From TrEMBL:
Residues 36-71 form the HTH iclR-type domain. Residues 1-22 are annotated as: Disordered. SUPFAM superfamilies: Actin-like ATPase domain, Winged helix' DNA-binding domain. InterPro entries: ATPase_NBD, ROK, Tscrpt_reg_IclR_N, WH-like_DNA-bd_sf, WH_DNA-bd_sf. It comes from Streptacidiphilus cavernicola. Belongs to the ROK (NagC/XylR) family. Residues 10-21 have a biased composition (Low complexity). This is ROK family protein.
């Protein structure tokens, strides 16, 4: 199901990071976000939408236009009541770009998006090592090549970076990433030094959650939980349109979440009912191998294909995974009561088993039959990694554009 609940007028896509304290900077952010969310608008409409006075909007938009942060479009929308022409203002989308970098277990994906989240292109680089220094060098080279090939002279505003595991966003460090064997890696510092661009590092699942609320499945709601199932499991909470991180950004871990009645492979904690042990791709592969239904070297995609071809044993395992995911979703839904739970990752590859997930969700949630309508699928599409990783930077940029436009700061809000 991709339908979204009808909640009246679509909420504008607003940034979810903290707002600047200075009133001038805040007004600039408000104007820029309004044009981002609503598209090209004349000054009168920007004033209505932001709640700022017409005078403030006229003064600031004139300065933003001369600083190159807004463009006057040639089209005239027709005379306003005053008889003056209404010139729409827009973001210089075609002149700017943002880079998204995802560092995965096997490969690094780099992509370029425009400030509205349209993907301009991406490239994938296979890893030859897990050494942080080598992966940073590979990512930096990939970004340089990408900008050279696809940038088309655009100005790159900054870089968003996503990596799995436990990421301390405030300190720009990867606290722990078991599959890569990383502990306390200052990835943000290393990449900033290599790229010489403003950069925001975020855990991949939190980046996905942010991207869902920017341009995915959760644009219309104030609260959502991203539930990711893949080589790892994890969640991210968006509450009042803000990502919830908690101390050291440790929120959202689901690795050892007990799943009622589930039995999977042995978790590294010793139990067999942890979400990690029953729902990850490697858990499903481990169970399939133990049952003689898969061979060494087969990947989850092989199992998905064989289930589709009628392999009953494999289909049973994937169906069971979907049920376990439904039970985990029930726990999250009851605990946090978000408007949506956005499901992403492996279970979406087997849509034929998602009704099983929904049934289990209804059975295990206190919301009963109301619960499944809160479960939606990721809306990020085939470029989800690029869109997700660009989102933390876009979020930071549109929360306080002038902090990224050093040259324009004096021009726009004055001394
Ligand atoms: Zn465990």
């Amino acid at each position: 199901m991709t339908a979204r609940p009808a909640t009246g007028e679509p909420a504008p896509r607003t940034a979810t990071a903290a707002q600047p304290r200075d009133v001038g900077r805040r007004n600039v952010a408000s104007i820029m976000r309004t044009v981002l969310a609503h598209g090209p608008q004349p000054r009168t409409r920007i004033a209505e939408l932001t709640g700022l006075s017409a005078g403030t909007v006229t003064r600031l938009t004139a300065r933003l236009t001369s600083a190159g942060m807004l463009d006057e479009l040639p089209g005239v929308l027709g005379p306003a009541e005053s008889g003056r022409p209404r010139v729409p203002l827009d973001l210089p989308t075609a002149r700017n770009a943002v880079v998204g970098v995802h560092i995965g277990l096997l490969r690094t994906t780099v992509g370029l998006v425009d400030p509205r989240g349209s993907v301009l292109g991406q490239a994938v680089h296979q890893h030859h090592s897990h050494e942080p220094a080598q992966l940073v060098a590979q990512a930096a080279l990939g970004v340089e090549q990408l900008i050279g090939e696809l940038g088309g002279g655009r100005r790159v505003l900054g870089v968003g970076v996503g990596v799995g595991g436990w990421v301390d966003t405030d300190h720009g460090t990867v606290v722990e990433h078991q599959p890569l064997g990383w502990r306390d890696v200052p990835l943000g510092t290393l990449l900033t030094a290599a790229l010489d661009l403003p950069l925001r590092l975020e855990g991949t699942v939190r980046a996905m959650a942010l991207a869902e609320s920017w341009y995915g499945a959760a644009t219309r709601v104030d609260s959502a939980i991203e539930l990711f199932i893949g080589n790892v499991v994890g969640s991210a909470l968006v509450l009042d349109r803000q990502i919830h991180r908690g101390p050291r950004s440790a929120a959202g871990t689901l690795t050892h979440l007990p799943v009622a009645g589930a039995r999977g492979v042995r978790c590294d904690c010793g139990r067999t009912d942890c979400l990690q042990a029953v729902a990850t791709d490697s858990a499903v592969l481990g169970l399939a191998r133990a049952a003689g239904a898969a061979t060494e070297g087969e990947e989850i995609e092989d199992l998905v294909r064989r289930a589709g071809e009628g392999d009953h044993a494999v289909a049973t395992l994937l169906r069971r995974r979907a049920r376990y995911v439904g039970r985990a979703a029930a726990t999250l839904l009851d605990l946090v009561n978000p408007e949506l739970v956005v499901l992403a990752g492996g279970p979406l590859l087997t849509p034929e088993f998602l009704p099983d997930a929904r049934r289990e969700l209804a059975r295990h949630s206190q919301l009963g039959e109301q619960a499944p309508q809160r479960l939606v699928h990721s809306g990020l599409g085939p470029h989800s990694l690029v869109l997700a990783t660009a989102a933390p930077f876009l979020d930071a940029y549109f929360s306080d554009p002038l902090s990224f436009e050093r040259g324009a700061e004096h021009l726009v809000i004055g001394a």
